[in-house]
């Protein structure tokens, strides 16, 4: 199939036989939208998201399985260097026919069908399935490396680029006016 927009993407499974134990495979190249991101990480807008999908027909509905590969961009939370990560995302979801949901509701009540996905016609909405799985796969605090030391809290330089003996002499601001006092006393004593 050709490139398609990510937002509103729908998979038409009309060609999937309704008898159990049949399957169809699909390949989609979706285009990443501008809102596929969190505060610290994003899938670059316009990048390709290849998605391989297998749909299995079962007695009570269909089993949807997909694998998507996404490129993620972020900044290291310690040193602010750019990070690029490629992730494989696996999605698996069971969609039940309305008849199966009605039967389960009769057998187990409303609580027995709570949270189950219903197959509406011959279409499966891809965006919510993929979006939820992609965004929840993002690392909470992306790092350029596990041993990243971050930035010096005084000068803002990367610790990895600074010498081992790097340090800053910081005076308490309450004593800043006294900093030159002893130099002044020493010079007065030398003059006398």
Could you outline the blueprint of secondary structure elements for this entry?
Elements: E1 3-5, E2 10-12, E3 23-31, E4 41-42, E5 48-58, E6 61-75, E7 82-96, H1 98-108, E8 117-118, E9 123-125, H2 126-136, H3 181-191
Parallel strand pairs: 1-3, 7-8
Antiparallel strand pairs: 2-9, 3-5, 4-6, 5-6, 6-7
Could you explain how this protein is built, in words?
The chain is an alpha+beta fold and 192 residues long. The protein has two domains: 3-136, no CATH class; 159-191, no CATH class. The protein is built from three helices and nine strands. The strands form two sheets. Strands 1, 3, 4, 5, 6, 7 and 8 form a seven-stranded mixed sheet that branches. A hairpin with a 6-residue loop joins β6 (61-75) and β7 (82-96). The relative contact order is 0.15. The model has no long low-confidence stretch (mean pLDDT 85).
Q: Could you spell the SSE succession in H and E letters?
A: EEEEEEEHEEHH
**Mean pLDDT score, rounded?**
85
Q: Treating each run of at least 4 consecutive H or I residues as one helix, how many helices? A: 3
Number of domain modules: 2
Give the class from helix and strand content and strand pairing: alpha+beta
Gyration radius, in Å = 29 Å
SS elements, strand count: 9
Tags for this model:
192 residues; 3 helices; alpha+beta; two-stranded antiparallel sheet; single chain
Short description:
The protein has 192 residues and is α+β, with helices and mostly antiparallel strands.
